[in-house]
Structure to design on (598 residues):
């Protein structure tokens, strides 16, 4: 099996590069006696660029591939999420270099190691086709997130967020593990493919399948911030250092959607690949449950976002609402739905990462995350305010920005399957969300700044990073064909 | 002669253990006690995995899974205790009801 092992190792080359980065960073931490933040970040950035490049190379010359005795499957779907993983970690590293909150922690080497581990965990989550691998990669991602949230030394808010996160998170993973043990007992196998075959061949009691599925869904739903597992999100998003909040809002959520789609499309849905005909083979109506949960998720997220005064907390509730929109794509089964969710996630990456980046830069300068302190920002820093406006309008889903395309594609997939009521709920929710996004824009443009306020200083590198997020947000809003065909090709799951 | 222990007995045991864990998690205010409740939930799942592995034709993967989950639980508890200690240094309490500086 020598050749099989070599082939498997080639297939996980991006993860190996990220693991190497983590090891170098850990050695750096020991050898340099906690100095050399610059070197640490350079190694992290090079490592993530390497991992992302390896992912792109694998994507281009890919055939059907399972690795390590079918524990992981490397396909366009998993590589799409690997790419999101490494690129988001890259952006978070760039953010962390400028962050006021992470500056005095002195543990830059460890930060790079933990972030690399996060990237590996997320990438493996998307490619796992075995319950054991799903559990292991998800726990890798979770433990790294707990550490990152409580990373700021001495700040009480960050510690409190970390404690809340790990307690909610371990409860969710306890439920998930119990659900997995029941699935194992039913199917007599941990492989998702075997679970599908077992569902087709046996008539399991409905109540057992409901309990197992809902328990597993609890664990996954925690990651994507699905109601009713959303209670942790506002506190954790507010308390965590802003770069980490951006990582949780973008990468952690994408990882949750990756694993949830892989799980249901491999174990619960049989597909005839020639005709693209998909059918739910489990004895339960989980699609209806997901649809109802989607409606609740977006409604609660949007309504509670309205009275928020802290901008990170407001963006946390908005990210709950966005999880609701993406869940629409999960409550229907079709190729179009999968590719719609992937497109939405790609767009969401650009606009949400951009919004959090600007929140961090403003916080560095005025030491506040209150929406009230954004008053008159447009008069002192017009460029930054214009960029923030684009990101917020895109998050609302207004044309001609990318967020609009993301929403339209998801809604069209749902209309195609006749899920009209859910689309109506989502459209009403979009209108509600305009209120709280526009409130920030109104503060920035229509109110006068307080006396003696200094313009927000933006260095050359942060400005370039913002532009690199701003251009796709506008460009994909008017010319989305390349992104759409990329998402469509990436929706192949084997 | 006492009747043999069957798969059902193990499943009932794990169900009871899981319920006790959930009850502890929901009612306890002490962070350490909540973590102990979580530990009961994880071990209930481990009993399930090992029992299914022994009494059915499911092979040893269930036992392998249980081993992995024990290791993961240990790692998770290590991180959780580190966070609890660091928050205790700042606030001098591990009562979850008193950790409420963020509201909204």
């Amino acid at each position: 099996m020598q050749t099989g092992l070599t082939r498997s190792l080639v297939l996980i080359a991006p993860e190996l590069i990220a693991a190497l980065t983590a090891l170098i960073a850990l050695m750096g931490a020991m050898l340099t006696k906690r100095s050399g933040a610059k070197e640490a970040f350079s190694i992290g950035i090079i490592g993530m660029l390497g991992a992302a490049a390896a992912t792109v190379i694998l994507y281009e010359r890919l055939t059907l591939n399972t690795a390590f005795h079918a524990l992981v499957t490397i396909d366009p779907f998993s590589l799409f999420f690997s790419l999101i993983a490494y690129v988001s970690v890259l952006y978070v590293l760039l953010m962390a270099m400028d962050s006021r909150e992470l500056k005095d922690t002195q543990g830059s080497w460890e930060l790079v190691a933990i972030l690399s581990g996060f990237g590996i965990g997320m990438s493996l989550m998307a490619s796992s086709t075995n319950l054991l691998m799903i559990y292991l990669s998800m726990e890798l991602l979770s433990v790294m997130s707990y550490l990152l949230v409580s990373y700021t030394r001495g700040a009480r808010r960050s510690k409190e967020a970390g404690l809340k996160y790990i307690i909610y998170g371990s409860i969710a993973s306890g439920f998930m593990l119990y659900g997995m043990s029941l699935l194992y007992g039913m199917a007599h196998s941990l492989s998702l493919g075997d679970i599908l075959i077992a569902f087709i061949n046996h008539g399991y009691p409905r109540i057992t399948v409901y309990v197992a599925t809902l328990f597993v869904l609890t664990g996954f739903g925690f990651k994507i911030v699905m109601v009713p597992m959303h209670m942790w999100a506002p506190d954790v998003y507010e308390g965590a250092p802003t770069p980490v909040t951006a990582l949780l809002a973008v990468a952690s959520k994408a990882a949750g959607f990756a694993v949830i789609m892989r799980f249901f499309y491999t174990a619960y849905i049989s597909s005839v690949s020639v005709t693209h005909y998909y059918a739910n083979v489990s004895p339960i109506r989980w699609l209806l449950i997901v649809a109802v949960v989607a409606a609740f998720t977006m409604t609660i997220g949007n309504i509670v976002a309205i009275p928020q005064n802290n901008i990170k907390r407001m963006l946390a509730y908005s990210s709950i609402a966005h999880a609701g929109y993406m869940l629409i794509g999960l409550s229907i089964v079709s190729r179009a739905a999968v590719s719609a969710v992937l497109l939405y996630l790609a767009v969401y990456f650009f606009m949400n990462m951009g919004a959090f980046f600007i929140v961090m830069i403003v916080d560095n300068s005025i030491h506040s995350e209150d929406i009230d302190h954004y008053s008159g920002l447009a008069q002192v820093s017009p460029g930054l305010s214009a960029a923030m406006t684009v990101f917020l309008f895109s998050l609302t889903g207004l044309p001609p920005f990318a967020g609009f395309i993301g929403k339209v594609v998801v809604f069209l997939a749902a209309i195609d399957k006749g899920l009209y009521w859910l689309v109506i709920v989502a459209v009403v929710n979009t209108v509600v969300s305009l209120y709280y996004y526009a409130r920030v824009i109104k503060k920035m443009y229509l109110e006068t700044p307080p006396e003696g306020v200094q313009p927000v200083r933006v260095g050359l590198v942060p400005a370039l990073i913002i532009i690199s997020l701003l251009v796709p947000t506008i460009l994909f809003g008017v010319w989305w064909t390349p992104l759409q065909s990329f998402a469509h090709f990436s929706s192949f799951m084997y | 002669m006492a009747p043999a222990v069957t798969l059902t007995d193990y499943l009932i045991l794990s169900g009871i253990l899981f319920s006790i864990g959930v009850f502890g998690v929901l009612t306890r205010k002490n962070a350490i006690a909540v973590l102990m409740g979580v530990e009961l939930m994880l071990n209930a799942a481990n009993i399930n995995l090992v029992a299914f592995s022994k009494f059915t034709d499911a092979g040893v993967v269930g036992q392998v899974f249980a081993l992995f989950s024990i290791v993961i639980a240990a790692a998770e508890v290590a991180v959780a205790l580190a966070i609890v200690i660091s928050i205790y240094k700042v606030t001098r309490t591990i009562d979850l009801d008193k950790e409420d500086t963020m509201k909204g």
